[in-house]
Amino acid sequence: MKSIYSYFFVFLCLMLWSCQSTKDSGQDILSFYLKKELSQNDFTQGKKLVQSAQLAYGGKDVWKAYNVARFHQQADWYGNLEASGWDELPQHFAMVTQLDSYNCEFFLINGKNKRQNWGIEEGKTYLLNANKEKEFQESKYKDKLIKKNFWFQFPFRIDEAETIAYLGSKESNGQKYDLVYLKGLTNDYFEDFVLFLNSKSRLIELVHYTEKEGSRLTQKTSQFTNFKKVKSLFLPYSQLVHAGKPDEAGSKLHENQYVEILLGTN
Question: Rounded to an integer, what distance in angstroms lies between the CA atom of residue 189 and that of residue 167?
Answer without folding.
Answer: 23
